[in-house]
Amino acid sequence: MDIGEVSKATGLPASTLRYYEEKGLIQSYGRKGLRRLFNQKILERLALIALGRRVDFSLDEIRDMFNTDGPDINRALLSAKADELDKKIKEMTKMRNGLRHAAACSAPNHFECPKFLRILKLAGKKRLRQRNKL
Amino acid sequence: MDIGEVSKATGLPASTLRYYEEKGLIQSYGRKGLRRLFNQKILERLALIALGRRVDFSLDEIRDMFNTDGPDINRALLSAKADELDKKIKEMTKMRNGLRHAAACSAPNHFECPKFLRILKLAGKKRLRQRNKL
DNA sequence: ATGCAACTTAAAGTCGACTTTAGGTCAAGT
DNA sequence: ACTTGACCTAAAGTCGACTTTAAGTTGCAT
């Protein structure tokens, strides 16, 4: 298939496909005249790249994950990436819960609502509490 | 507190704080000469901004979420953001599971391993199966 | 054989989120 | 009074991920 077909199939502009090739994320299997030729499995790879982008991997990271040279290095990289995702999933979950509360909350400034802040685990400690029991 | 203290307390460079002020994400309560003066609660707000950034909100989005003018508009925005996060959490979970498998998988090309692709729900359908039962 | 839509390249431009630079001001310690 | 380090502003620069532009080439339908 030529670049236009890949573009149509994926929704990505041809310029993006050329850019991805230049960066080493995809390859064409040859040319017809000047024109790049891609085979079917590019579509799967592009879907994978799109998913990677959605979960905030950089193009360089994605390219590295495709590189199967050092198998252990790759394994470690994948693991590290999984850990990173795990951390982010937790933060996003916390934030989502906070936002759900804020959207339902009657307080006029969500962002000072103690419940909201507690959900986000921001500033739980009351500072300046006068005359603390000693 | 002056900008240097805020910077020390948060780890953010002063230039970033000025930039955030310029963009309307934070305010100083006044000046001493030229120098901005911030009060304590800036720290909480900056922590919130940092969390927002971590979960991929843009500065404009964060600023909008702080704006409590149209209470319903704000509510709708928060809800929409929560939905968006939910969607992303699901994608990230899928990707994390895929990566965990890939890191443990014996196959040399993780990215063509059918199990991996199935976890990511990419390309489940075998195309070109010859002589299909009619 | 001709036309032209779809391709090609290299280089410049854009956008968000900052950072860096250049040149200036000033509060506070000696 | 003087120095100096921390602040100030406006403007330019950087980085990643593309997009746009300008100028050229070519497969294919007529």
Give the secondary structure arrangement, pairings included:
Two copies of one chain form a homodimer.
Chain A: H1 3-10, H2 14-22, E1 30-32, E2 35-37, H3 42-54, H4 59-66, H5 71-104, H6 114-119
The first copy, chain A, binds a DNA duplex (30 and 30 nucleotides) through residues 2-4, 13-16, 18-19, 23, 32-36, 53, 58-60.
Overview of this protein structure:
The structure is a homodimer. The longest helix of chain A is centred in the middle third of the chain and has 34 residues. In chain A, a hairpin with a 2-residue loop joins strand 1 and strand 2. With about 130 residues, chain A is mainly α. The model of chain A has no long low-confidence stretch (mean pLDDT about 90). Chain A contains 6 helices and 2 strands, in the order ααββαααα. Chain A is elongated and about 65 Å long. Chain A folds into 2 domains: about 70 residues, Orthogonal Bundle (Multidrug-efflux Transporter Regulator, Chain: A, Domain 2); about 50 residues. At the A-B interface, helix 3 and helix 5 of A face helix 3 and helix 5 of B. The structure holds a DNA duplex (30 and 30 nucleotides).
